[in-house]
Amino acid sequence: MDEIYKKLAKEFEWGVKAALFLLVLFFLLYILGIGSSVLPPEKAHEIWSLSAASVNTDPNISFASRLASTFYCMDTLALIAVLLLSIVVIKAYIVLLPKFFSAKLYRFLILALLQLAVLLLVASGAISGGH
């Protein structure tokens, strides 16, 4: 195996473990009420069934407009873990997509491109689950 792919695998492993650790840590801190939060845990059920567009336009919630001023809050800090996980996946695909193409691994190439398309559509808000 090429050295670059071994390095990529180590970075991917580290990134995924770090992101999962941060997600669990910030979630536990949020649920236990340690630190401040934008949305108190006892009110989380009120917005659970809302779409992202509804949450972002609701003047009582308004996460998008308060993100910068609430970056220290536990529920907002969890976004760091999501960002880290996204960066790790995108970096892996940047390295692997040309390899799939040059090795004529078209099934993997198509699956990877479909996954990236879904990730981009979800991230942009064009599609969402269950709302």
Would you give an account of this structure?
There is one protein chain. This protein is an all-alpha fold and 131 residues long. It has a domain of 88 residues. The chain is 69% helix and 0% strand. The protein has 6 helices and no strands. Helix 1 packs antiparallel against helix 5 and helix 5 runs antiparallel to helix 6. It is flat, with a radius of gyration of 18 Å. The model has no long low-confidence stretch (mean pLDDT 76).
Radius of gyration: 18 Å
How much of the sequence is in beta strands?
under 5%
Which residues sit in consecutive blocks of at least 5 with pLDDT less than 50?
none
Can you tell me the overall shape?
A: flat
Short description:
With 131 residues, this protein is mainly α.
Blueprint (SSEs and pairs):
Blueprint: H1 3-31, H2 44-47, H3 52-57, H4 63-66, H5 74-102, H6 106-124
Helix pairs in contact: 1-5, 5-6
